[in-house]
Specification:
Shape: globular
Number of domains: 2
Helix content: over 70%
Number of helices: 15
Oligomer: single chain
């Protein structure tokens, strides 16, 4: 309807002028139909598995909102102007299809773009299959299907944590600690980068080391220790705080020397897979940060 209206309007404005319209169907748009099937299967299975836990529409929104936030962050990361598809990106969920689709919209028949198509589709269908398997397992679990609808109360939850502490953490608590560390780094990165830029070039390397140490302690060590002491019953076993014997120390030293050449050789053969290249000046900054001007104990602590 819009196209018909615009054609009629142009004929009324300039009736004696020949107007040539191009093909409205871009060949790159056809790849949208190809990419939409694995993505639709993935998010349909994830939504179905998460909706199994819900006993009401409001509770279902609580479960689906984090999924939408994560997806929007991945799409925004892939849609940034400088992002281009590479072998490492092709196996990532959401990021791989979005980057490949962006390249195919520009050059639909380019051989370098079509080479990523089997890998991206295979990885996307694999993730969709795993999500579907998880959804099916939820329907086979009686504890999920026949659980009672409970109203969440923060006070009752804290009271239960004090009286019924599990001995070891589950996958949910481990993922929560990881999410705190990752999202904390994302939130603090702009302010910390501005603070480093405001320092003098001589003070910047040592400040970067201390910033790295404080960041690791506050975002990774502190949440893990707090969760182990406040939410779990066996903090010593959770953190594996036990005495190490001399044979274990000897095995660790031998493995370090034995595996180092293998790891170096493996990284040499996998350089094509991972993204290469650092921003301009990054290598010089790393050399100054880890150079001889810094104390050895500070570098080891970082």
């Amino acid at each position: 309807l819009t196209a018909t209206y615009m054609v009629q309007l142009s004929s009324k404005v300039a009736p004696n002028t020949e107007v040539a319209f191009g093909n409205p169907i871009n060949p790159g748009m056809l790849w949208v139909l190809v990419m939409i099937f694995p993505l639709a299967a993935l998010f349909s299975a994830l939504s179905l598995a998460l909706a199994t836990f819900a006993r009401s529409t409001r509770e279902g929104q609580y479960y689906l909102s984090p999924l939408m936030i994560v997806v929007l962050m991945l799409v925004a990361l892939a849609a940034s102007p400088g992002a281009e598809i590479q072998p490492f990106h092709s196996v990532l969920p959401v990021i791989g299809p979005v980057l490949l689709l962006k390249q195919l919209m520009i050059a639909p028949t380019a051989a370098e773009n079509l080479a990523y198509l089997p890998v991206v589709l295979g990885a996307s269908f694999t993730y969709a299959g795993l999500a579907l398997w998880w959804a099916v397992s939820q329907f086979h679990s009686e504890t999920v299907l026949f659980r009672e609808a409970e109203r969440f109360d923060i006070r009752l939850w804290f009271r239960r944590l004090r009286t019924h502490k599990p001995a070891r953490p589950g996958p949910g608590l481990a993922l929560a600690c990881l999410a705190v560390g990752l999202f904390g780094q994302v939130l603090l990165m702009p302010s910390l980068g501005a603070w480093l830029t405001s320092l003098s070039p001589d003070d910047r390397p040592r400040a970067a080391i201390w910033m790295l140490i404080v960041q690791q302690v506050l975002l990774f060590l502190a949440p893990a220790c707090l969760a182990a002491t406040a939410l779990l019953g066996d903090a010593k076993g959770t953190l594996r705080l036990r005495r190490t014997g001399l044979p274990s120390i000897a095995y660790g030293i031998v493995l370090a020397f034995a595996l180092h050449p293998l790891v170096e050789e493996l990284m040499h053969h996998l350089q094509w897979f991972f993204p290469t290249g650092l921003p301009d000046g990054s290598l010089e900054f790393l050399r100054s940060m880890l150079g001889k001007s810094q104390p050895a104990w500070l570098v080891l602590l970082a």
